[in-house]
């Protein structure tokens, strides 16, 4: 009888410890879910496809989706504040084709690249000003930015502009290999962007302010946090990432094109949500967004391996989004009950 009582106490203590751990780390649950999905997909692909080489496939996913990873970093900052940025695909296209045009006109790559980043930042600042000072909904403000950037891309050129600049093409043509893995400078840029963003969100006052604004903007104001500066900054960061992504995509494709990035903003949002960032703001991690990009890229790769139509990529991503939206609702409900 005493042994049975001790077992019950031990079980009860374990359950309490588990609930306490879950309540303290509940924001990591969607990230863990994304990791599990990624691992299961890799294991299934390796079992089903004998020629599936993990190191080469994952290296290829990073190579093909470096621009999407950079966009996802900027989008994570915006969504963490409860906003949205629909302009990233159009800004990427505009900066990409403008960069190709400038390089074709003889502008040095050391001038063209910083100029594209600054242009992206300017469009992001415009969206932030509309949201913060003119009380325009982020959806509408970023839609304005999207139309502006896409129109400017067509002003630059209606056709594709090929890039011959060796300095820019070096970012994609160079490969560093080790133990069967490989990475290009564009992949390194994407990973460094993730690392810098993760550091900012985790260890800086600005990062804590971003989470506070997304959690409860009114409370953040009452605490004296620089809410206005934070909300402006996240759109500038998103614009910078979009400008950088334009450079990465232009190096990857070897050309600028005004229709690049059509629908990419939706892919970016999908990757961020799959990575565990709450659309309501206040919870999420850049590392999770990176995992979301790899999940998205792996889905496309597996469907390509299987010979199925790429429309199944959208169907699969839609199913995953439904799953993660349900997970997010559970998290929000549990958080509300714990208060």
UniProtKB/TrEMBL annotation:
<feature type="transmembrane region" description="Helical">
    <location>
        <begin position="311"/>
        <end position="332"/>
    </location>
</feature>
<dbReference type="GO" id="GO:0005886">
    <property type="term" value="C:plasma membrane"/>
</dbReference>
<feature type="transmembrane region" description="Helical">
    <location>
        <begin position="179"/>
        <end position="201"/>
    </location>
</feature>
<keyword id="KW-0812">Transmembrane</keyword>
<keyword id="KW-1003">Cell membrane</keyword>
<dbReference type="InterPro" id="IPR001851">
    <property type="entry name" value="ABC_transp_permease"/>
</dbReference>
<dbReference type="Pfam" id="PF02653">
    <property type="entry name" value="BPD_transp_2"/>
</dbReference>
<feature type="transmembrane region" description="Helical">
    <location>
        <begin position="61"/>
        <end position="80"/>
    </location>
</feature>
<feature type="transmembrane region" description="Helical">
    <location>
        <begin position="232"/>
        <end position="257"/>
    </location>
</feature>
<keyword id="KW-0472">Membrane</keyword>
<feature type="transmembrane region" description="Helical">
    <location>
        <begin position="111"/>
        <end position="133"/>
    </location>
</feature>
<feature type="transmembrane region" description="Helical">
    <location>
        <begin position="139"/>
        <end position="158"/>
    </location>
</feature>
<feature type="transmembrane region" description="Helical">
    <location>
        <begin position="269"/>
        <end position="299"/>
    </location>
</feature>
<protein>
    <submittedName>
        <fullName>Sugar ABC transporter permease</fullName>
    </submittedName>
</protein>
<keyword id="KW-1133">Transmembrane helix</keyword>
<feature type="transmembrane region" description="Helical">
    <location>
        <begin position="26"/>
        <end position="49"/>
    </location>
</feature>
<dbReference type="GO" id="GO:0022857">
    <property type="term" value="F:transmembrane transporter activity"/>
</dbReference>
């Amino acid at each position: 009888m005493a042994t049975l009582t001790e077992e019950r106490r031990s079980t009860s203590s374990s359950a309490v410890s588990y609930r306490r751990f879950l309540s303290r780390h509940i924001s990591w649950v969607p990230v863990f879910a994304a990791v599990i999905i990624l691992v299961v997909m890799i294991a299934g692909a390796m079992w089903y496809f004998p020629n599936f080489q993990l190191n080469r496939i994952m290296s290829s996913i990073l190579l093909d989706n470096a621009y999407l990873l950079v966009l996802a970093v900027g989008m994570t900052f915006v969504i963490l504040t409860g906003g949205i940025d629909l302009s990233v695909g159009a800004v990427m296209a505009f900066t990409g084709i403008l960069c190709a045009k400038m390089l074709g006109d003889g502008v040095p790559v050391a001038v063209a690249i910083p100029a594209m980043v600054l242009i992206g930042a300017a469009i992001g600042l415009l969206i932030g000003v509309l949201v913060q000072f003119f009380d325009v909904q982020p959806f509408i403000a970023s839609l304005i930015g999207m139309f502006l950037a896409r129109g400017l891309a067509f002003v630059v050129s209606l056709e594709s502009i090929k890039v011959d600049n060796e300095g820019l093409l070096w970012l994609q043509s160079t490969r560093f290999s080790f133990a069967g893995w490989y990475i290009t400078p564009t992949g390194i840029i994407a990973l460094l962007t993730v690392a810098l963003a993760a550091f900012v969100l985790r260890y800086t006052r600005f990062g804590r302010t971003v989470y506070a604004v997304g959690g409860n903007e009114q409370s953040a104001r009452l605490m004296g946090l620089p809410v206005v500066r934070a909300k402006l900054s996240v759109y500038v960061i998103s614009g910078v990432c979009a400008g950088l992504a334009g450079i990465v995509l232009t190096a990857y494709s070897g050309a600028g094109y005004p229709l690049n990035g059509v629908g990419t903003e939706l892919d970016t949002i999908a990757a961020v949500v799959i990575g565990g960032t709450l659309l309501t703001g206040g919870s999420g991690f850049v590392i999770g967004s990176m995992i979301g990009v790899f999940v998205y890229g792996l889905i496309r790769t597996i469907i390509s391996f299987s010979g199925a139509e790429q429309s199944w990529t959208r169907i699969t991503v839609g199913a995953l989004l439904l799953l993660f939206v349900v997970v997010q609702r559970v998290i929000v409900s549990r958080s509300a009950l714990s208060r």
